[in-house]
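Q: What residues go here?
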């Protein structure tokens, strides 16, 4: 690909878009520079802007908040289900108004959301599959159920292009609009557009990663099964089981405050983290999100990436079990 002399957006990007769309089972895809860019352009492609409202979970990173604000629309955080950490359809329903134009539905940590219940709300859905490439809902790939879906290929994601993202949709009209908006120059008429292109270098890496995606997911699920077996009976809330879960993160919940637990794990040379840095409602200084607050305060992400060695896995398992048993005994 380097020898071709073409490293910007070109034929390799088109090949990646076609391969990805075919793998998901949609008509078309548009590759862009990041997952955030994907959300931004999807919203613009749906003509969402000032005066509109977009519902999303509070228990996510701030990328969704930023993308909605870029358009001039109003973000409306909603609470989560206490066991799945995905959007709670009942709470979403209470927040729908005449100004609601879309619901952004992340499949958080690789676990498919309750799409049937959310689709019954009759508001266009944008599936956020940034953490869920390869995940399935009722034996179909996530990303095919909403009006559109976005994926992220950041360095830490299940598959990566270093940076990058993609929008998929059954609507060719939407994808055509996104393609028009991602390139700021060489257009017949002027309107605000963006430099959101993916490069052929990134696309070439993406094609290579696609070939190994099933192996990546198989490895994550294998590690998850070992964790389920090892942590059973330790007094921890373990991830909700679902056949479509790909375990981008393995998130446990302890009765101990997450920060304290993570610090104790670090002393054992185990790098755990809070899966969400700070919920959106706290960034916006809103109240009334009890399940999100609880998850933020108690949830812990345990390492699950495919490159973990057997020795590292054993150390993680021993450390988590010892911490859990120790905390349980201290209560």
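A:
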């Amino acid at each position: 690909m380097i020898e071709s002399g073409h490293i910007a957006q070109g034929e390799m990007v088109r090949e990646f878009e076609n391969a990805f769309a075919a793998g998901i089972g949609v008509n078309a895809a548009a590759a862009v520079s990041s997952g955030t860019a994907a959300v931004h352009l999807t919203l613009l492609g749906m003509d969402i802007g000032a005066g509109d409202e977009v519902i999303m979970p509070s228990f996510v990173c701030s990328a969704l908040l930023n993308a909605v604000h870029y358009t001039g629309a109003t973000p409306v955080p909603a609470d989560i289900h206490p066991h799945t950490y995905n959007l709670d359809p009942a709470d979403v329903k209470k927040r729908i108004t005449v100004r609601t134009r879309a619901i952004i539905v992340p499949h958080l940590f690789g676990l498919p959301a309750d799409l049937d219940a959310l689709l019954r709300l009759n508001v266009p859905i944008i599936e956020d599959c940034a953490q869920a490439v390869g995940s399935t809902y009722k034996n179909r790939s996530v990303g095919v159920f909403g009006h559109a879906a976005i994926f992220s290929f950041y360095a830490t994601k299940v598959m990566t292009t270093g940076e990058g993202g993609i929008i998929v949709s059954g609507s060719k009209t939407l994808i055509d609009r996104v393609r028009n908006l991602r390139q700021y120059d060489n257009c017949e008429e002027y309107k605000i557009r963006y430099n959101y292109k993916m490069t052929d270098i990134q696309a070439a890496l993406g094609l290579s990663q696609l070939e190994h995606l099933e192996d990546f997911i198989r490895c994550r699920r294998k590690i998850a099964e070992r964790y389920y077996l090892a942590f059973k009976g330790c007094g921890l809330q373990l991830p909700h089981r679902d056949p479509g879960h790909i375990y981008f993160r393995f998130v446990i919940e302890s009765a101990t405050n997450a920060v304290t637990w993570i610090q104790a794990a670090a002393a054992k040379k185990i790098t755990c983290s809070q899966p969400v840095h700070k919920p959106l409602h706290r960034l916006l200084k809103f109240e009334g999100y009890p399940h999100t607050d609880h998850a933020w305060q108690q949830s812990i992400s345990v390492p699950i990436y495919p490159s973990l060695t057997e020795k590292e896995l054993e150390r993680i398992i021993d450390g988590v079990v010892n911490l859990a048993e120790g905390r349980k005994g201290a209560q």
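A: Context that may help when evaluating the design: The CA atoms of residues 231 and 321 lie 6 Å apart. The chain has two domains: 2-208, 215-330.
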